[in-house]
Specification:
The protein has 12 helices and 12 strands. The chain is of the alpha/beta class. Strand 5, helix 7 and strand 6 form a beta-alpha-beta unit. Helix 7 packs parallel to helix 9 and helix 9 packs across helix 10.
């Protein structure tokens, strides 16, 4: 999948037939007003450089009134020159995809369609007021792939009426659809949502940060095995002061926490087969912070187990690979 930079244009709650248990798109996107064709053009005119995609996020894009959807799509067309802007990406609901919609999107140079699947458990979907079934997810994903679009799938962990086993089953189901990318969002509780009501009366216990890191690390490893890129782990952190999550597994660097846990688990699996001594671990360029862990957490954990670890960045290594070499007693770091 080609790497793109994204210019995100948020369309908060537009097209959503109702509010899901967890949803406050205005808080999540820090956007209160809907974009217009003119505001889209104004935004795109300010962008410099090449290799961008235009992304309409934050609502159910294909469920908005048809005239409004076409206004936004049409406003972007003059900018799609194949160099500066190459394509459009949209996010939508699984029950807002049909053959006519896909034809319109193709005519307007949409290249990627992301489905907010969230869960493939019908009980979980119903409890969180999603308004669609797991079957809708599978059917829409198949239609998107068959029509030649890139498919993105979004899931949430820690939803009301879900658990670790159900979250892992959702991940397996989504990966079985052969998506081109995935996003994983641990559930956060926002004010004025059903989840807040359920939490305050004790009917919903939010996933802890550590629980979310553990389950998302497992899902991340599953995706690596399937060669499916996880392009987002956790919510973006640009909340207004009065819109921050009340509870739940939110961290401004959640993705790095997951990467750190991934490296810790896998490096430890190798070290456990080796004697406790000094080792140099070759890692990919730019991965030192993730491997060492926040506040050097992984380094401390290795040290507590009796391993003396140093890291060397290796430009030839793939991003998530590493190799371990014994350090001779007379070697210098």
């Amino acid at each position: 999948m080609r790497k793109h930079q994204t210019v995100a244009i948020f369309v908060p709650n537009a097209g959503c037939p109702h509010r899901c248990s967890f949803c406050d798109q205005s808080a999540i996107t820090s956007t209160k007003t809907l974009p217009t064709g003119e505001s889209v053009r104004n935004t795109l005119e300010t962008i410099s450089g090449e290799g961008f995609e235009i992304a309409f996020f934050g609502g159910s894009f294909t469920a908005v009134p048809r005239a409004y959807m076409l206004e936004l799509l049409t406003s972007a067309q003059p900018f799609l020159d194949g160099k500066k802007f190459t394509r459009i990406r949209i996010s939508t609901r699984p029950d807002a995809i049909d053959d006519e919609i896909l034809e319109i999107l193709k005519e307007h140079h949409v290249g990627v369609i992301e489905l907010g699947a969230q869960s493939t458990g019908d009980e979980v979907l119903k409890a969180n007021l999603r308004g669609h079934t797991a079957r809708d997810i599978f059917e829409s994903a198949a239609k998107i792939k068959q029509a030649g679009f890139e498919l993105g799938l979004q899931m949430m962990t820690g939803l009301y009426r879900s658990n670790a086993q159900k979250d892992l089953r959702t991940a397996d189901d989504l990966l079985s659809m052969n998506p081109d990318c995935m996003r994983i969002y641990p559930t956060a509780v926002f004010a004025n949502t059903l989840l807040e009501t359920l939490w305050r009366r004790g009917d919903y216990i939010p996933q802890t940060l550590d629980e979310a890191v553990q389950i998302c690390t497992e899902i991340f490893e599953k995706a690596l095995i399937k060669n499916v890129p996880i392009i987002r782990l956790g919510l973006h952190a640009d909340f207004a002061d009065n819109s921050k999550p009340l509870m739940g597994a939110f961290h401004s660097a959640f993705g790095e926490l997951v990467l750190s846990e991934y490296f810790y688990r896998n490096i430890l699996k190798t070290l456990e087969k080796m004697p406790k001594m000094r080792y140099n671990i070759n890692i990919a360029k730019g991965m030192r912070s993730a491997v060492a862990g926040q506040h050097r957490k992984n380094m401390l954990r290795f040290a507590q187990l009796g391993y003396d670890i140093r890291f060397t960045e290796d430009n030839s290594l793939p991003r998530y690979d590493f190799n371990i070499k014994k350090v001779l007693e007379n070697s210098f770091y």
